[in-house]
Specification:
Order of helices and strands: EHEEEHEEEHEEEEEEEEEEEEHHEEEEEE
Helix content: 10-25%
Distance between the termini: 25 Å
Structural class: mainly beta
Number of domains: 2
Largest sheet: 14 strands, antiparallel
Radius of gyration: 30 Å
Length: 354
């Protein structure tokens, strides 16, 4: 317990912010069924499916992201005869409520393709949604680092879904400098097909860790996979185009269509590390004595070796940070004892990260 306290001044405290990035590759072998879909968890409600890096019943499995799909109420997609019609609308509305600001009347607004919500423009009224876990995205996805590779060839921003020879790249190419800020969840970038000059096919919400892709990225038949792991045009459960699949197929099968066209997703996550740095200054007249009972023996300073002419000294081993009412809050240890005498002064730099 300290017997002498020294108060920090404004010049003794500094704050810093550091952004740490980690490369996250999510390979297609995991998502497309390396473990015979044992790493894909389906739910009885049928509103989304979860992807794990190992079979999800394994104790070492980590949840990496969810896939779901939906469309807007009142759009060309809505039909009470559709499979899971109300659930698809609910899924779409839920993401709109979280990611898109309400209008001035308090109504839910749809995803706007170019992000200029108030200017009208083309709406993305039927979408795939990929929600990445915090384990991967951390505090946010690094702007300009997101790449989603799908099988197919680029054609006016769409993907020829049955062509597994030509990868199509979807990325936030200009996300570093051209991101949007009109979302309740923070910043988001536009996802382009092929290049920064390509068609806008979705949004990437950096802090929320959510990618929204318009269903129009697929043309022709929905990508699916047969039991041999090869692409087929019309397997059981899904037939026809994406538009017909959004109507006739349940959400799980629509999500599977995206999974089977998946090659990989790569991005860098971001961890924001905030630090308070305290400069603990021991000036020439400070801390030359110790309150440790062993410092004195028969009223003599032990470390002076019974030499009355020797200057007092102490050895600093610990720094304590105290509250205004002298309650110990944090302790820092030095790597080796530091000799302190009236002829020297020390500055110890203590860093607290949070």
């Amino acid at each position: 317990m300290a017997s002498t306290y020294k108060t920090f001044t404004a010049n003794d405290i500094a704050t810093t912010k550091t952004l740490l990035h980690e490369a996250i590759p999510i390979t297609g072998s995991i998502v497309s069924g390396t473990y015979n879909d044992e790493n894909i968890k389906y739910f009885s409600h049928g509103m989304f499916e979860a992807v794990y890096d190992y079979p999800y019943l394994s104790s070492s499995a980590n949840h990496i992201f969810d896939i779901t799909a939906g469309y807007a109420s009142g759009s060309e997609w809505q039909d009470s005869e559709n499979s899971q019609d109300s659930k698809k609308i609910n899924v779409y509305n839920q993401f709109c409520q979280v990611l898109v600001p309400y209008d001035v009347s308090g109504n839910i607004q749809q995803f706007d393709q170019d992000g200029n919500i108030t200017a009208g423009g083309t709406k993305m009224d039927s979408c795939f949604f990929l929600t990445f876990s915090r384990l991967l995205a951390k505090d946010e996805i690094k702007k300009g680092s997101f790449t989603f590779n799908l099988y197919g060839s680029s054609s006016q921003g769409a993907i020829a879904s049955t062509d597994r020879t030509q990868p199509n790249v979807i990325s936030d190419f200009d996300g570093t400098t051209n991101f949007k800020v009109n979302s309740p969840t923070g910043e988001y970038g536009l996802l382009y097909s092929g290049s920064a000059d390509g068609a806008v096919v979705g949004h990437l919400y950096y802090q929320a860790g959510i990618a929204v892709l318009t269903s129009s990225i697929f043309e022709g038949s929905t990508p699916t996979m047969d039991t041999d792991g090869t692409m087929v045009t019309s397997p059981a459960g899904i037939t026809g185009s994406v538009s017909s699949s959004f109507k006739s197929s349940p959400i799980n099968e629509i999500a599977n269509a995206l999974r089977y066209a998946y090659i990989d997703v790569d991005f860098n996550n971001t961890t924001e590390l905030n630090s308070s740095i305290y400069f603990c200054r021991a000036n020439t007249a400070d801390y030359n004595y110790s309150s440790n009972p062993t410092y004195l023996s028969a009223s003599k300073i032990v470390v002076k070796n019974d030499n009355a002419q020797a200057e007092p000294m102490s050895f600093i081993t610990t720094v304590g940070l105290y509250s205004a009412d002298n309650e110990l809050l944090a302790v820092a240890k030095v790597s080796e004892p530091l000799k302190k005498t009236p002829s020297n002064e020390l500055t110890l730099r203590v860093r607290l990260d949070y």
